[in-house]
Amino acid sequence: MEALKPVQEQKANRVINVLSIAIPVAVAVLLGIRQKIDLGSWTTILPHLNAVINSLTAILLLIGFYFIRQGNIAAHKRTMLMAFTLGSVFLVSYVLYHLTNQSTPFGGKGWIRPVYYFLLVSHIVLSIVVVWFVLRAVYYALSGQIDKHKQTVKYAFPIWLYVSITGVIVYFLIEPYYIY
């Protein structure tokens, strides 16, 4: 793809920056809403779906890494776009769950408690950070700016993989405390 004109690049950067701030702020605001919307009991399955999505995302990230190491750019692109799509579905599902259900308190005791909270806090912080990197990496790849894509992915890949894996671990740690 030909190089983008400076104006197009500025617009893309602005959109990425706005989304990177707007998404975490919107999620935080939605999590803070005390009055939940009643869409029915089916929404209680969403954390389980989210764990599956996070698991599949982690697998796709590793497969995408494998494909790029093998030089299979087409398979890498498809795999990474699937991971990006799953991330988007996860975000919608996560917000929908927290709009309709109270947060589940962690009931673990002893040594597991600080482990859980360390994983949870690092997961949350890095899930905020990774939005900017992932949007930028996808943008650079789709606009043909492969050198910039590679530079961005040095950070995006390990952070995104960590967020996906810790999301599943946190789910398994809190799952016994969900009320159905």
Automatic annotation (TrEMBL):
Protein name: DUF420 domain-containing protein
InterPro entries per the UniProt record, alphabetical: DUF420
Keywords: Membrane, Transmembrane, Transmembrane helix
Organism: Spirosoma linguale (strain ATCC 33905 / DSM 74 / LMG 10896 / Claus 1)
Pfam families: DUF420 (PF04238)
Source superkingdom: Bacteria
Membrane-traversing stretches: 12-33, 45-68, 80-100, 115-135, 155-174
Keyword Zinc-finger: no
UniProt KW Metal-binding keyword: no
